[in-house]
What does this fold into?
Amino acid sequence: MPVTESSALPRAAAARVTGRSLPERFRRQADSLERAGRSPLCVRLMHDAARNIDARGVVAELYDGVSVPAGSVPALRLLGALHYLVLAGRARALAEFYPSAGGTRPPAGVWPVADAALREHFDWVRGRVGRTVQTNEPGRAAALFSALLWLTDRYRMPIRLLEVGASAGLNLLVDRFCYLVGDRALGDPTSPVRFLEPWSPPPDIDLLDAARSLQIAERSGCDVAPLDPASPEDRLLALSYIWPDEPERMDRIRAALELAAHDPPPIAAAPADTWLPAKLADRPADVLTVVWHSVFRQYVGPDRWTELEAIYARSARASPRAPIVWLSMEPGDDHLANMQLSVRLSPREPERHLAWCGDHGPPVRWE
Ligand SMILES: C[S@@+](CC[C@H](N)C(=O)[O-])C[C@H]1O[C@@H](n2cnc3c(N)ncnc32)[C@H](O)[C@@H]1O
It folds into this structure.
């Protein structure tokens, strides 16, 4: 069951979500999180925020006139804003409930304190709830890495990795993380970003051989609002979208941000349909171009998505000998299912399902 930003929008459910009221959307996300046994603090805050909207409280005022289209995950916008205030040291009483800031108080009493923080910082929070969610979850690299191994096994070519909706570009560092599988350390064994048995089962290939052969010849990405991993402000923003009571994810993103700050992959500030055509032109024939996106599709309108499909088809047609693979990790069509890792080996081929995984990556279950 998807539990985070994706939970509001499994692909085929978009139309249904649009018709739901704001409190309903908060409650659905809380229920989904709760069923998955995740973040009691966020579950509590989402339920309390839903009640607050019903009672025309401060949360209703905050969202008054704010556009929250399907897939825009309004609950995560609000929780990200609260977490940011806590991490920035601007909501000290609230921090007592946030394990990410050393807080130890149980979630049960959090709402009056959160309510007060929302009132105190009303204008700032209102700006934040109008802003697109800007998660960058390095756990999704666990899905990406397994797919790159599968592609390496299949094509035996170096890879150009192009990410659309890359945020801070953390997942472009996929081969600089370490994946512990049995007694093998794949990727970079010295990496501070480590995944223990991320695949269950793994792709049915010789993993060690594929990992040794994997070569990333180029990595780059685009985002309409890229985050700079070296900027304290942008780091805080990226941290604010992690559930505050999931310390492993907090540690993981901190380590990944640190890596990225020292050697940042280039991320262009551009929408995907503007950036991609030039990146897909003049491709070398002996390199596999992989376009990758994760939890991105729900933020792109249908017209722009159609244009992205057309760009893929045109670019592949223009130089058919230089393969382009389209790889994605997005909510599945079935809203009760998890994230789907899928691939299209050419625009003429249908999307092929590779694996299921969690919203934040592991466990990745290959078919
Ligand atoms: C939920 S985040 C996911 C980021 C990253 N892919 C991950 O999985 O951690 C979605 C990202 O898509 C970006 N975005 C939304 N629409 C876009 C577009 N048309 N072109 C490029 N980036 C876009 C947002 O700014 C945001 O950083």
Remarks:
- The chain has two domains: 5-129, 138-366.
- The radius of gyration is 20 Å.
- Confidence is low (pLDDT under 50) at residues 1-17.
